[in-house]
From TrEMBL:
The keyword Transport does not apply. It comes from Pseudonocardia eucalypti. Belongs to the histone deacetylase family. The lineage of its organism: Bacteria, Bacillati, Actinomycetota, Actinomycetes, Pseudonocardiales. Keywords: Acetoin catabolism. This is Acetoin utilization protein AcuC.
Length: 389
């Protein structure tokens, strides 16, 4: 790698606060950075400070009239339409500025990679993957993931793979690129019959020349670490190998955790750590080592998100933190003053990650795996029934 990977952060990103009671509480970001700092993950790292993305960059994905609505919404008591003023996306003062700063963070990370200064970059405040071209959705005002991908396509990257491991379908990014054969979007999420937004079926494969570049792997509620990894490995590596992206972008939501209050998958912090290591290996094997990692969902604010995203930053930085590492005393003392919940004492949970490869016997996820493989593998010249592919 050229230099240490880029970490994008500023306390200004905490201004993306939808309401005082909203589940997307920016305290999760503050606690993550505190934990990573106290564990030494960020020692010697030149943390980069983003600036708000200018309108012309946000308009790569969003319509000008939507930006106007976001800017004016706080001054319109009755709301501004465009999905704003809903329980999921309440209007708040400084909404445009805070949302533009998140976009600016992901654009800064993208520019660092495109410049050749780094091969990897991470913006844990990013990953707002539900926002559509003309409306807010699912806690997301501007889709920083899609904005960054669009910018990268114009700055030297001919083929980009986007892998979304959030518990919710990465619908906004899929919608932005469903007709663009230069972008492969893969979303591994809880089954749409059981979770909002109700999209992300295996049959959603993209359109026209881009048929096969939208990939959806929906998993049943209750899926644990080993089964999740079994399914992921049965679908994602083969597609990346065939697509040959020049860069990997990942949305690393941690609402797949068994304690998350908004969904029903059953992963552990250990599972999240394994996923990030898997993504790092795939970037090295199939994307020239280039990896842009973004945050996403995650609503267990004190017990899960800080640990999981500290592991994410550590993985990007090649400073992997052992799962058995003790939680820092100062972090525990600070966080205990914010919540009455019992706090974890270690960076992992001791959860088992073992599993058999797909194709070696029955598992509840195998039906989902086969549906996804049969929907998209033939479009890439791969055999959906051959476990070697």
């Amino acid at each position: 790698m050229t230099t240490s990977p880029a970490v994008v952060w500023t306390p200004g990103l905490l201004a993306y606060r939808l309401s005082d009671t909203h589940p997307l509480d920016p305290i999760r970001l503050d606690l993550t950075v505190r934990l990573a700092t106290e564990l030494g993950v960020l020692d010697g790292i030149d943390v980069l400070t983003p600036q708000p993305a200018p309108d012309e960059q946000i308009e790569r994905v969003h319509r000008p009239e939507y930006l106007s609505a976001v800017k004016s919404a706080p001054d319109i008591p009755w709301g501004a339409g465009h999905g704003l003023g809903t329980p999921d996306n309440p209007i708040f003062h400084g909404m445009h500025e805070a949302s533009a700063l998140v976009c600016g963070g992901s654009l800064l990370a993208a520019r660092e990679i495109a410049s050749g200064r780094v091969d990897r970059a991470v913006n844990i405040a990013g990953g707002l993957h539900h926002a559509m071209s003309n409306e807010a959705a699912g806690f997301c005002v501007y889709n920083d993931c899609a904005v960054a991908i669009s910018w990268l396509l114009d700055h030297g990257f001919e083929r980009i793979a986007y892998v979304d491991v959030d518990v919710h379908h990465g619908d906004g990014v899929q919608a932005a690129f469903a007709g663009d054969p230069r972008v492969l979007t893969i979303s591994v999420h809880q089954h749409p019959l059981t979770l909002w937004p109700g999209t992300g079926w295996p049959g959603e494969v993209g359109s026209g020349d881009a048929a096969g570049t939208s990939v959806n792997l929906p998993l049943p509620p209750g899926t644990r670490d080993g089964a999740w990894l079994r399914a992921f490995r049965a679908v994602v590596p083969a597609l990346l190998a065939e697509f040959r992206p020049s860069l990997l972008v990942t949305q690393c939501g941690v609402d797949t955790h068994h304690e998350d209050p908004l969904a029903e998958l059953s992963l552990s912090v250990d599972g999240h750590r394994a996923i990030y290591q898997e993504l790092r290996g795939l970037a090295e094997a199939h994307a020239n080592g280039k990896w842009l990692a973004l945050g996403g969902g995650g609503y267990s604010l004190f017990r899960v998100v800080p640990r999981s995203w500290t592991h994410l930053m550590a993985t990007v930085l090649d400073r992997d933190v052992p799962a058995e590492a003790a939680m820092p005393a100062d972090w525990l003392a600070h966080t205990a003053g914010l919540t009455g919940l019992p706090l974890p004492t270690a960076m992992g949970e001791g959860a088992p990650l073992d599993h058999e490869p797909w194709g070696t016997g029955g598992d509840p996820v195998d039906t989902a795996v086969l549906e996804t493989r049969r929907a998209v593998f033939p479009l890439h010249g791969l055999d959906p029934d051959d476990p070697r592919d």
